[in-house]
Hints:
Helices cover 6% and strands 45% of the residues. By secondary structure, it is mainly beta. The chain has four domains: 7-130, Immunoglobulin-like, CATH 2.60.40; 137-448, Beta-galactosidase, Chain A, domain 5; 453-547, Immunoglobulin-like (Sandwich); 550-615, 2-Layer Sandwich (Trypsin Inhibitor V, Chain A), CATH 3.30.10. The longest helix has 14 residues, at 435-448. It is globular, with a radius of gyration of 34 Å.
Amino acid sequence: MRTTLSRSALAALALSLGLPALAHGAVTATTITSPTGDVRALTLAGNPASFQRAVTGTATAADGDKVDVRCYGSDTNELLAADLVVTGGAFSGTLDLTPIDDDGFPCTARAVPDGDASPGDIGRFAGPRMFISHFAAPAQAGMATPVNGGGTAFIDTYGAYAGPRGTGFSYEPDDDALYELSPVNPTTLFATYEFGGYYPFDTAADIDDRNAANTGSALTVDGHNGYLAPNIPVLNYDGVGGSELPTGVASITANASLDAAGTLTMTESYPVYRCADAGGTPNDTHPVTTASCPRTVSAGVRLDRVKRFTNDGASVVLADTFVSTDGAAHDVGLEVDEDNSVSDYVETKAPGDLAFTIRGFGDVLTYTSAPATLLTRDSQYPESSYVGAGARTALEQPVRTTWEDDDESFTLQRFAVPAGASATRTTVYAVSLSSTAAESGANALEDQQGAPTIAIASPAAGSTTTSNVAIVAGTARDNKAVASVKVNGQSVAVASDGSWVAPIALQPGANAIAAVVADGAGNTNQAVSSITYTPPATPQQVQAASVKTCRIPAITRGSTVTSASTKLKKAGCKVATKRRSITSKTKKGRVLSTSPAAGTTILADNPVTLTTSKGRAAKRKKR
C-alpha cells in the first residue's frame, strides 16, 4: 500500500530530520498580522465592499511559495483567499467573507500551504478568530411574492449572527424572530448544532397564521384576526399556478447594525392587516381562503420588532412594540409559537416548578407574576455540554403557555395600546452549555432592561433646619437587585426592603442633596432634593460622621421588657426609662409595641418608648 505525503508534511518531516528546507511549497509556519484579535464584522447583501477584508501576514517560506487563507471551525473549513504569494517572508491579499457570512459560523483564520486544507499541526499557522454576521434586507433576502391583482411585495429578511459564545439566525418567511439560537463552546469555537449538537431555541417568537387552538390567527386586534406580511397565507388567487398575497400587502422594512462591542441589532417594521372581501368589508374567516381574503385593510396598528444579539451571541433581547396608526386605542392579543428543540426529548422548568418536567400536548401553564422564566434542556442528557440549554424570560406577565408537544409551545399575552401611542412586550433569550448558566444569562439581560429607581422621603424638599447635619432617608428599587446607593457621594447601606438612611453634613445656606442608585448591569438613576441650613445664634456644630442612627427593630408582641430592651440596644437604640401602659388581653407587663414604630430610623440619642400591657380590664360586678 502506497502512502502519499503532502508537501507541508514533507517539509515538517525534513525539519525534524535536520534536512534542508524544500525550495518551494515548504511553508512551515505563518502568522496573520492583520486583521488581529477577534474580528467582528457585518456583511450586507447588496454591499460588495462589506464582504472584503484586507489581510497581511508573515510566513516561514521561500520567496514564491503560496498560501491559502482558510477559516477553521470544528471539522470543516472555508476558503477565504487563495494563492497569496510569499515575498521576503510576507504575504498580503484580500479575504472574501462570503463562505462564512450567512450561517453563523465562528472560526479561526489561518494561512496554510496552498492546496493543502489539512496541513498537519494546525497550531503552526496562527490567525484571528472570525465572527462574521450577515443581514439581507427584504429585497435581497428572497424572491418577491406576487400580489393578487398585480405587483410584488418583498416580505423576507435574513440575518445571521456569530459570536464567541453563541450563534443565531433570524429568517422571516414566517416571521421567526430567532431561528436556531445555539451556544458555542468558547474553547474550541464549535457550534453545538453545526457539528452534532442541538439548538436550545430552534424557533422563537414566531407569529404564525394560527393560534394554539387553531381557531384563529396568532395575532388579534380588538378581538379580530390580524396578520403580518410574512404570516398571512399566500393563496392561488389567479388560478394559474403559484400563490399570491392578498391585495394591499406591502413590502416590510428592515435594517441591521453592528456596534463596536459586537452587538447585532436588527429592526423590522410590519403593518398589521385584517382580511377583507372584495368590497373591503373585513372578516374573521379561519382558515383564510381566496374568497374570504382577496384583499386586506389596516387593523389600525403596526408592529416594530427589534432583535439585539448580545453577550457575544449567547443572548437575545426581543422587543415587540405595537403602535397605534389610526389614533385609536386597541386591545392586542399575541400568541407566539416557540420551538424549544434542544433535541427530540425536552424538559422544562417553569415558574413554581421545583424540578424539570416533561410537558406534552394540552398542558397549560398559567402565569401569576412577571418576570417569568422558562428553562429548557434535554431530558436524556441534562446539563450536557454537548447539547446545551436555554432560558426564556418574559418581562411582562403572559396569560398562559400551552404545549403542543414537549418541544413546542404557544405563549399568549394580552395588552392595551393607548390611543395614538404604543405598548411594548419584551422577551429575553439566553443559551449556554448548562441551564444554570443560561438562567444567569437571562437574569443579566433582564437586569439590563430597566434602570433602578430611587426616592428621597425626608427631609422634605425646600425645608429648613438649624442643625448642621441632615438625616436623609429614602428608598431604592430595581427589577433584580440594587447594587449600590450613594448620597452626595457617600456610600449608604440598603435594607432588604429597599430603605436607606444617611447623615449628611450641611453648610450654611442652601444645600443640594443627590441620591444615586446603581444596579448590577450598570444602570443608574438619581433623586435630588434641597435643604437650607440656618445656624442658631449660638452655633452647636455636629460632625456628620459622628452622627449615629438606629433603625428600630421589630419587637414580638408579648415579649418581656428585658428581651425587648436587649434587642433595641443591639440595634443601637436607646430605651426610654418611662413606659406607657394600656389595657390589653396580653399578659400584664409584656411589650405591645414601640414608639416610634418598628422600621423607623431615628437618631441613636432619641429614646424609644415601650408600650406595655396593664392586663385585662377589671370586670364590673353585677347588681
